[in-house]
Every structure is written in C-alpha cells, then in structure tokens.
Amino acid sequence: MSEPGAAPGLADVARRWAARLADTDGVSLPPEELEQLLHDFARTAVAEAEAARDAAMRRFTTLYSSAPVGIAMADPEGVIVEVNKELGKFLGHKPDRLRGRRLAELGFDNRDCEKLATGLAELAETDLDEFTDRVRLAHADDAGVWADIVLTRLPGDRPGTLFPVLMASDANEVHTLQETLRHQSIHDSLTGLSNASRFRTLLESALSPSARGQVALIYLDLDGFKVVNDGLGAGVGDAVLRGVATKLNEAFAGEDALVARLSGDGFAVLLRGELTTSGVISLVETALEDLAEPIYIGEHGVGVSASAGIVVRDVRDGGVEDIERAAEIALHRAKEAGKAQWMLFDPELDARDRARYRLGAEIAGALENGQFELIYQPTVKLAKPDEIAAVNAGLRWHHPELGELPAEEFFPLAETTGMTIPLGKWLLTESLRATARWRERYGEAAPDVCIRLPNRLAIEPDLVALVKEQLDRNELPARALRLCTDSSSILDPRGEVLDSLTVLADLGAKLVLTVQGSADLELIPQHQLSVQHVILSGPVVDALADGEPEVAARHLDQLVTRARELKLRIGAEGVRSHEQAERLRRHGVIAARGPFVADTATGDEVDQLIEQHTDAAVSG
C-alpha cells in the first residue's frame, strides 16, 4: 500500500538537487560526474521516502494495535488479512484465528451476516464513505456479542484498489440497557405480562386495514380481589396477581395470544387468526377453571375467581374503540350476572341497552322541561270502600318520542345517572303541594299522601331537613304525610336510614313498610322502627288473586296475626279485583289499592275521586 507523506518529501529532494545541478558557474560537467550526481540524488530521494514511509507505518501500526476498538482489514474480495488484538479479545479469538475468514462471516447468525454483507455491498457500489449499524458478532463461546460497527475502505498498494475495514466497539451494556428500558416500557413490572400501552398498540395492529381473519378480545377481572389485599396484605395480593398471570399464560399457551395486565386486577387476552366463538369460549372456560384453583403463598391457599367479557368478530367489523367497548360491556354483564362466569357480547342486547342509557341521560333535561307529572293510586278502606284512606303518589314521564313511561322504566336509570334525588325531591315537593290543596278544600276529610321513597333518597343524609322544609312551606302537619320504604332501604349500609325514619316519626310523619314475608315484618321489632302501617306486597297478595289456597291463606293469617301483635295497621297493594279484596278483608287486611279501585289517576282524576269519596263518606 502507498504511504501517506512520501510524495511531499520527494518534491523537496527534487528541488534541492535541481538547484545543485543548475549551479555550475557556466562549467560543463563530465558525464561521469553528472551520473554520480544523479545517483546521489536517487539514493537520497529513496532514503528520505523510505524514512517517511517507515515513520507512517510505525504511526499506523501503533494506532492500529493500541486502538480501543476492534479492527479487521480485508483484501478487495473481503477476506480478512489483518486483525488487531482488541477485536480478537472482543470475539474471544487469537487474531490469527480470524485471518482468512470473510468479513461478512463475522456475524452471529444469518441476519447479522446479511447486515455485514449489505454494508460491504453498499460501500462497493455507491459513493458511501462508511456504513454503520448495530449487529451481533460471533464469539468463540458460540454466543453473540452486540457491537456498534463501522465499515469503511482504505486505499490499497496499487492505484485504484480499496481495502475494506471493519471497526467494532462493544455495545453489550448499552444494548442491554436499551433492551431493559424497552422491556420495562411495554411490560407490567409486577407480572411480566404486556402492559396496557403495548396491548393497545398490538390490538390496533390486529385491526389494521391489511389484517385478515378473526380477532377475539377477552377482558378478565378478579372478583373480590380487594378482600385479598385488605385481609392478607398487599404482598400476598401481588403474589396472587403473579400467580394469575402465570395461569393465564398457561391457559392460552399454544395460541396466537397476547396476555396483558391492564389495571390493578384487570387482565386482557387478544387472540388472532381463524377463530370460532365456541373455541374461544372453551379457552376462557378453561382459564376460569384454572383460576378457581387456590394459589398457595406461604401458608395461605388463596382462592380467586374471575369474570370475563368476550368479543369474537371479523377484523373488519369496527375499530379499536368499538371492540374495547363491547368487551367492557360483556364484562360488566358477567359481573352483574353473579361473577365467576363469562359473558359473550350480544349486539342486539347492546342496542337495547344503548337505548336505555340514552333514556337515562335524558332524565335531567326532561325534569327541567316539565315532562314529568304526578300520578296517583288511591288506597281505600276495605270495610268502607267509599272512603279513601290515602293516596299514593308516583311519577310518570311524558317522553316526546316514547310516550308515557311508568316509574319502573326510568327510576333504575336515574339511580345510575345520579338523578334519583332530584326526581325524589320533585315528587315530594309536588305531592305535598297537592296535599295542601286537598286539605284546603276538604279539611280533615282529605286523604293522606303516601310517597314511596326511592332507595337513594331514603339513605340521603338531608332527608329529614328536606321533608320538614316542604311540610313547612306548604303549612302541612307531618301527620298528613306517609313515607313508604322497604327492607332493602332499611338495611342499606350507605346511609343512616333508621335514624332518619325515627326523627321523621317523632315529627309526626306516618311510616309505612312494604313487606313480602315474615323476615321483612321482623325488621320492625328488631330495629325498633316507629312504623304504623305495613303494606303486603308480592306473592303473599298474588296468591289470593283467583282463589284461597290453604297454604297461602295460612301464611297470610300468620303475617296478619304478627302485625296485630306489633299494633300495626295492615294494607295490601296490587289488588286486581273486588273478589281478591274481599278475601284479603276476611283475613284481616283493612285497606288496599290496585286496579280494583283505579290503576292510576292523573291530578284532575284523583281530585274527582277524592271529591266523590268524600261526598259519599259525608252522605253515609
């Protein structure tokens, strides 16, 4: 190879000898003397050129041998001719063992060798000065070591020849750190499963326009996991989550599946390929069975169950948000259905639910726009059917598209949208306003108004203040108001229902409890409730609709006897006929309401009923 620095030194020598030959003072030199001068010139030129070359070679050799990076030089065909100690050390070989191999063969596997070959080809075929990449090089112990490599070319010893050179620096620590950071960024640190971010990315990829086949999305949620955390501690809870992750990986092993942890105790599975609904359900059932087996952590055998929501569909049937929402809805239904089971997404059921949820979202606007009205159901005395004992007030919604909607269609939705209390307040306010009008017209002959407290209103801490405010505003005595509740409200742990009912009873309001059996009735002495009326409801009343079965009659007699022992007045609701009313009367029921009197009545209609019954009572 030609040496850098040789050409400038030769030019200096030529200039010096040219000056000597020119300086002859007009004297002609003999040929022998001129020849000697030329010989001296040539020797001097060669000596100085060799000295410069040797100095350059020493500098290059020193740099080459002491370089902190591995270097391999090859001939124009890519066969290694020189290797420095650093590269031999890096690859676990003596340098001699690497000479004679091709540069491209230093890669660890086919992919790495192809990268090296591509780099060498680009250097040879383009004007590229260097090629850089990160590849694995083959180590003597049959492992791969990560290296940041530079491929370049040096001039050869003949004009126009170029010699490939590879320089490699150790990238194992950097690569390991980068891989660790990458792994942490896409995996859950506790379970090692994919995290929510990576799961969403791969879900988007599975539903890309180029995707084909089916996809299944499964959301799983542990049932009652808070009990494990609170009862056994967060450490045991973490161990349980790791155990769940292991079981899920095993349950879906062998499938084209991605298992991820999305939240605290929420997991997801993505399946891709040619899928069938029955096949996916079978996999989920196996997973749920495996999860039901206890996970042993130390001395604790912790049992957990899980609920699952399943969506199976063609990849072209909607986007990521659609399938995620479907899986969430299916999981929610599985939880509502009793947990520890799976639920398959049902598009038709979802369409009905969407309509219901839209209805729930419209309640606030409907209340503001006056779409609700009071409806009534009178309660009459069975011994004197012409006398109204009380009027039960309820709500009806005049929906602009769906028509008249009864309370049972919108009150459950109001519970989920937070509108139960506003509706309950409106019901109380308007009912007491109507009661004030009746009392002004009919005096003490006016019936009481009975309001069934929605569960959420019954547990409201400000219930007492709300009732008292409305009584005072309408100048009504508390005894004009009957408040009806049931066992679920009394036993609701979210509020101080018992205290509120006691205070209201002390104010003079009449408390009414709806009962369906002995257990409900026994809540009164058990909690020392200031209840004056009980309303029989449900099967105990329905059983006497078309006859008087012995068992049903005996059950009714037991309830009536116990109610009398507690000094309670006994009514019934849902009475359909006068014959049914008469049977109930014979067994001790003193008042009733239902279709046998009137199904429902508007404000004007109930005013007429009250007037008729009041006139009949006066004339009687």
TrEMBL record:
<feature type="domain" description="GGDEF">
    <location>
        <begin position="213"/>
        <end position="347"/>
    </location>
</feature>
<dbReference type="Pfam" id="PF00563">
    <property type="entry name" value="EAL"/>
</dbReference>
<dbReference type="InterPro" id="IPR029787">
    <property type="entry name" value="Nucleotide_cyclase"/>
</dbReference>
<dbReference type="Pfam" id="PF00990">
    <property type="entry name" value="GGDEF"/>
</dbReference>
<feature type="domain" description="PAS">
    <location>
        <begin position="56"/>
        <end position="127"/>
    </location>
</feature>
<dbReference type="InterPro" id="IPR000160">
    <property type="entry name" value="GGDEF_dom"/>
</dbReference>
<dbReference type="InterPro" id="IPR013656">
    <property type="entry name" value="PAS_4"/>
</dbReference>
<dbReference type="Pfam" id="PF08448">
    <property type="entry name" value="PAS_4"/>
</dbReference>
<dbReference type="InterPro" id="IPR035919">
    <property type="entry name" value="EAL_sf"/>
</dbReference>
<dbReference type="InterPro" id="IPR001633">
    <property type="entry name" value="EAL_dom"/>
</dbReference>
<dbReference type="InterPro" id="IPR043128">
    <property type="entry name" value="Rev_trsase/Diguanyl_cyclase"/>
</dbReference>
<dbReference type="InterPro" id="IPR000014">
    <property type="entry name" value="PAS"/>
</dbReference>
<dbReference type="InterPro" id="IPR035965">
    <property type="entry name" value="PAS-like_dom_sf"/>
</dbReference>
<feature type="domain" description="EAL">
    <location>
        <begin position="356"/>
        <end position="614"/>
    </location>
</feature>
<dbReference type="InterPro" id="IPR052155">
    <property type="entry name" value="Biofilm_reg_signaling"/>
</dbReference>
<protein>
    <submittedName>
        <fullName>Diguanylate cyclase</fullName>
    </submittedName>
</protein>
